[in-house]
Design brief:
The protein is an alpha/beta fold and 311 residues long. It is 36% helix and 17% strand.
Length: 311
């Protein structure tokens, strides 16, 4: 059996991010070396609390290091209107007070530097932490094994505005900086991950409540599905971060094409839009592999099987 792939999850939990972290922590194919928090769905402080809550509640066999978000992070918006102020739709979760807290940006850089070329970063939230790490240490870009970016759009509309997807809109400047970096990158855009929406049937296939993983997921996922139905009118749940974890485990689940991508940072109507050069003869060199097709059934099956695996 091959050695597990080292991953860092940089997330802004959110129920969908929590599902992704649970999947990664339980997957034998992955070694989660760190989970770092960023603001996005919730405030930076709440994001840090939620990352800690996930790890404490799931109590994985291999404990990852936890990175706390900078509370002064800039955010253009959040999703508290959708997932509640706590990001978990009001699910009651107690968290212990940590005496030693590690800054997310420093932890992310330390882990990449300690295993150059081996670490995959799954960026499930705004790219604030990744951009800050690359700005402080430009050489870090070539030491990242792979950067999986959740967000943006390929050809479809945005979700927070007509043009922009949430993660890109939250910190468009950070996103544009990361796209321009020499890191090896794959973008999982909204119009691709929407192909693998989780249905309500997933609730019947969660791990049993006698396992910490199952108990935690059963406490937060019903509320997330309900919020998605009531506030978005969707009969299911978009969980692109979990799809990203599935892709990290099984890259064959997706088809990608190389493109040049930038993020609009100034437009009144287009702020945060991902501008992907799809011209027949583009003037710029590709800087990211963009997922254009996904095996939806395979990805969902991977998620469900991964949650039931014995890590």
């Amino acid at each position: 059996m091959s050695r597990p792939r080292k991953v860092i999850l940089d997330v802004d939990p959110g129920a969908a991010d929590a599902l992704a972290v649970c999947l990664a922590l339980n997957a034998p194919e992955l070694e989660v070396v760190a989970v770092t928090a960023t603001g996005g769905n919730v405030s930076p402080r709440q994001g840090s609390r939620n990352v800690q809550a996930i790890v404490e509640q799931v109590d994985p066999a291999r404990l990852p290091r936890i990175g706390m978000a900078d509370e002064d992070q800039p955010l253009s918006t959040d999703n508290r209107h959708l997932w509640g102020a706590d990001g978990f739709c009001g699910a009651p979760l107690r968290v212990a007070e940590l005496h030693q807290q590690h800054p997310a940006v420093k932890l992310l850089a330390d882990e990449v530097r300690s295993a150059p070329g081996e670490v995959t970063i799954i960026a499930g939230g705004p790219l604030t932490n990744v951009a800050a790490a690359l700005l402080r240490e430009p050489e870090l870009a070539t030491k990242i094994g792979h950067l999986l970016i959740v967000g943006g759009t390929f050809a479809g509309p945005g979700d927070v505005t007509a043009a922009a997807e949430f993660n890109m809109y939250c910190n468009a400047e950070a996103a544009d900086f990361v796209f321009r970096s020499p890191a090896t990158k794959t973008l999982l855009p909204l119009d691709a991950t929407d192909q693998a929406m989780l249905t309500f049937a997933v609730l019947g296939h969660l791990p049993p409540a006698d396992r910490p993983l199952g108990r935690f997921l059963q406490s937060i996922m019903p509320g997330a599905f309900q919020a998605s139905r009531q506030k978005l009118g969707i009969e299911g749940l978009n969980a692109p971060e979990a799809i990203a974890v599935a892709v990290a485990m099984h890259p064959e689940l997706v088809v990608t094409e190389p493109y040049h991508c930038e993020t609009e940072t100034g437009g009144r109507l287009t702020h945060g839009a991902t501008v992907i050069d799809r011209r027949r003869r583009p003037e710029s060199q590709p800087n990211v592999d963009v997922v254009i097709e996904i095996d939806a059934a395979g990805a969902i099956d991977c998620i469900l099987r991964g949650l039931h695996a014995e890590a």
